[in-house]
Design goal:
Layout lengths: L1 H19 L17 H10 L17 H16 L17 H9 L18 H14 L22 H12 L6 E3 L2 E3 L8 H24 L14 E10 L3 E5 L8 E6 L3 E8 L3 E6 L2 E6 L3 E2 L18 H9 L11 E2 L3 E2 L1 H10 L9 H4 L4 E3 L9 E6 L2 E10 L2 E5 L6 E5 L3 H4 L2 E6 L2
Antiparallel strand pairs: 1-2, 3-6, 3-9, 4-5, 6-7, 7-8, 10-11, 12-17, 13-14, 13-17, 14-15, 15-16
């Protein structure tokens, strides 16, 4: 079983690497661009970053809000490999364009207070700065602003308050270089942006984010427990309570160590140490033992609490790796097996039932199982839920470092995403610990 999983992970890594390789794309022919933009134009064509709808565009003309939005979403989908299905079509009173709806849900663009998007308006440079900042956040990259980065620009005071941070980020990371005027270097925040300027600046952003997203998200693996050498223990003295039906006590701080006893749901234990890997050292009947911190709470159980299911086997890391082995499988509504494909709750249902856990089938019902955990306390194997209010319409499994594996959409299938991506961050509603 373990050998098979290693082979699957190796094949997954090869497939991802192959997907990152440069591919020849059909060239999109645009017209009337400056000599300074020609290298960028050729590179964008080689990388397949120019939408077919741009064919025949005069690139010295100003870019509209609609055109910039389409370009941003097109490039976002290229480097993340992720494509969402818009949940609504009525965000704006003046457009239902799919790219604009996607960009809004991804957090790349916003509208005006009157409910319009104004797709045919020309994009100002400071609006572009803001789109680039949002573009970074949508891909879970959180650039830091630096006021000194724009201190040398003559017209820095003309940047609107809502765009100052975005301007600082764009200059600091080299996405924007400014222009030269008789008074010195300027940002020209209220000026319009030509198509070639917008394309060049967004490609610079793409190039810096591509490797980041690949390394931090697309190639993410399960974060296993600390090795013995890396674990430190801090002395404490407190009482905690068991939240699992049955909790194994072990002679060390890993689930692979020797079992020395069991504890029951609601039982109080004396904790004498907190391990840096999330385990606890306890004193029980005069002996020292260790238990997983997943199943201890500072609060005594009430009659309404439901103990964590203990019928299953396998470590959280082992089950998370099993779920990860299905990356690339198709999304099929109602699917809950490798032979058919998976929907989101079907993937969680299949992976956990294979290890003996009793699972509900629908995401919202799965959110009623196990024990609730805060986002700051997420551990490998926890189920993460997305939706609106307290209703969950999507679920995945946390694999560590802010990433989770899930059956995403019919377009993308089973894949890895980051909880910090704007789309998932704004829809996150909670987590449950089953394992």
């Amino acid at each position: 079983m373990k050998f098979a999983k290693r082979v699957l992970c190796a094949l997954l890594a090869v497939c991802i690497a192959a997907g990152m390789a440069v591919t020849c794309f059909a060239k999109v022919t645009c017209v009337n661009y400056s000599s300074w933009f020609e290298p960028s134009y050729n590179e964008m064509n080689e990388l397949g970053l120019i939408p077919e709808s741009f064919a025949g565009y005069d690139l010295k003309k100003n870019i509209t809000r609609s055109e910039m939005t389409e370009l941003a979403v097109y490039i976002f989908e290229k480097f993340t490999g992720n494509s969402i299905e818009p949940e609504r079509t009525d965000y704006f009173s003046d457009t239902s364009d799919t790219f604009i709806l996607k960009a809004y849900e991804l957090g790349i663009v916003g509208g005006y207070p009157d409910g319009t998007f104004r797709p045919d308006n020309y994009l100002t440079r400071q609006e572009f700065f803001k789109i680039v900042e949002n573009f970074c956040y949508s891909a879970a990259f959180k650039p830091t602003a630096d006021s000194s980065s724009i201190s040398g620009f003559y017209d820095k005071s003309q940047v609107a308050d809502w765009a100052v941070e975005a301007a600082q980020i764009c200059v600091k990371y080299g996405y924007v270089t400014g222009t030269t005027s008789a008074n010195g270097d300027i940002l020209d925040p209220n000026g319009t942006t030509t198509r070639q300027e917008g394309m060049a600046m967004l490609m610079r952003c793409y190039k810096s984010l591509r490797q980041y997203y690949y390394e931090r998200v697309l190639s993410a693996t399960v974060v296993d427990e600390y090795s013995d050498e890396n674990v430190t223990v801090s002395d404490v003295n407190k009482t905690m309570y068991v939240t699992a039906s049955t909790l194994n006590m072990r002679d060390s701080w890993t689930s692979s160590s020797t079992q020395v006893g069991t504890l029951s749901y609601g039982e109080s234990v004396t904790v004498t140490g907190e391990c840096s890997n999330g385990w606890y050292r306890i004193s029980y009947d005069g002996h020292t033992a260790y238990v997983s911190g997943r199943y201890l709470s500072s609060n005594a159980a009430s009659g309404n609490d439901t103990p964590t299911t203990a019928a299953g086997s396998g470590t959280a890391a082992e089950i998370a790796n099993f779920a990860l082995s299905f990356v690339g499988y198709p999304y099929v509504y109602g699917g809950s097996s490798p032979s058919t494909g998976f929907d989101c709750s079907g993937l969680m249902y299949y992976c956990l039932t294979q290890y003996g856990y009793s699972m509900n089938r629908v995401a919202d019902d799965q959110m009623d199982q196990g024990v609730a955990v805060s986002r700051s306390e997420l551990q490998v194997g926890d189920l993460v839920f997305f939706g609106s209010g307290d209703y969950a319409n999507h679920v995945g499994m946390y694999i560590g470092n802010g990433n989770f594996v899930h059956a995403s959409t019919p377009t993308t299938g089973v894949r890895i995403n980051s909880l910090d991506e704007t789309y998932y961050n704004t829809r996150y509603i909670g987590a449950r610990r089953i394992i």
